[in-house]
What we know:
A: about 300 residues; mainly alpha; 14 helices; B: mainly alpha; 13 helices
Amino acid sequence: MTTISAPGVDAAASAPATAAGPSQHARARRSGPSPAWLGLVPFAAYVLLFLAVPTILAIGSGFFDDDGAFTWTNVAALADPVVLNTFANSAWLSLLTAVVGAVVGALVCYALLGMNPDGAMRQSVDAAAGVLAQFGGVMLAFAFIATIGIQGVVTLFLQDTFGIDIFANGAWLYELPGLILPYIYFQIPLMVITFMPALAALKPQWAEANLTLGGSRSSFWLRIGFPVLAPSFLASLLLLFANAFSSYATAAALASQGSQIVPLQIRTALTSETLLGRENLAGALALGMIVVVTVVMSLYSLIQRRAARWQS
Amino acid sequence: MNRLGPSRTTRWVIGIIVGAFFAIPLASTFLFTLRGKEGPTLEHWAALFDPAASAAIKPIWTGLGNSLVLAVVTVAIVLLLLAPTMILVNLRFPKLKPAFEFAALLPISIPAIVLVVGLAPLYLQIGRTLGTGTWTLAFAYGITVLPYASRSIQASIDAADLRTLSEAARSLGASWPTVILRVLAPNLRQGLLAASLISIAVVLGEFTIASLLNRPVFQTAMVVVQKQDPYAPAIFTLLALAFVFLVLLLIGRVARGTGKARS
């Protein structure tokens, strides 16, 4: 990012909107800095202003108090038992739904492997995975309220037909455990999207080689399939974890009160008007989230690089 | 067809079990919208267009209108700012490509909720200079769609030989604007179309940023209305999911076209 934004961001306002500064480029190609650089300025300025600056502000605000003086208080608040508890909640919710999503998603990928990649069925599954992985959010919460909410279709069906009251132990759907099913609902499609390319890259020739050498179908998966896929699987699992950890919309729409997970606690800190200086606590929480997500995503790209060896 | 795939039976077992998990909430939502005092009824669907009942769900229509405006401005950012920059980087500054890709993928690893913390003070300033119109959110959305839009555009750039095309056009006397608009853009149209469609889908589904900056968009309006009337948001949920499903199906078609052109 810094590389792109290097040439005089100040000139952003006056720079032309497109890259196509007229004819002088062609000649200027080898003599000094070309005016084509100017074409990069608008986009660089945009990314700087709306991606880099907000990220720095978010992280930075955790280190200052309301009067703009430097302080460790907000960051120290990350060690508060309440805050630690929310981070732990977020972590186990993300881990649980990532593992379930990854295993079930991998099974779906395996089933898809037998289908024609250009067929209508595969196209539909791909599109459905795209919708459910990216578009869930609020609407996913509504779907689950309509299904297993207090007046939900399945809730009433179980009550009327079998006399089972799924809310006998309290309104869990609107609390932390209620997030598990909706989260799995968007994790499985994400797994399908990210893991399918790795599975599709398994070469049938490897299976033939295995058969020629006297192996069986199970020895193929045990000795070749799983070891080759393991890095990709782990990488996708990490991505799912980061995805659940960052997810906000579903939880915000389901749990209108309380802040059991980190994103909801940031909401509370941002919107709370009763506690002074809470806005800067949001910055400290954001810093904590960034640290977790950065560690996970760095591991992801490390493993992904290793996994890419088998995909060409 | 891949011979490594499972047998037909295994495929059906996995398909039915996982399919049921995904179908039950959607089917339940549909049944929920049909619920009436005396058995199934279409009254909740009819109420969407009933002037008498419209006051309650008016925020959703307003929010949908705002989201569509936001989608248009976001697509404009993608087509007028992102696409020309990508063409320039690929043509003139290939060494910057890794840095560009890094920047373009960055929004995936920065949670939207974290971005909001930093966007809040920024939008305070924007509110003072540009006003608090909902459309200004499109600046933030342009960043959110960056990873998806840039990937679609890059795929079609990789499929077309930009350098040869532009050099041929230049040697025939075309000016740079002509080259971009009449030679490169038509060759990249599948990527530009896919990038625009995915941007529309992402903007329509965005909740986090709009909600915390208190802007009335489609998703935030649904949450507001849901507290009084659970049926209308359920109906809009089904319609929006169906709409985006069709959009993504279309993107798949388009992308497959690109793939074929390449091979």
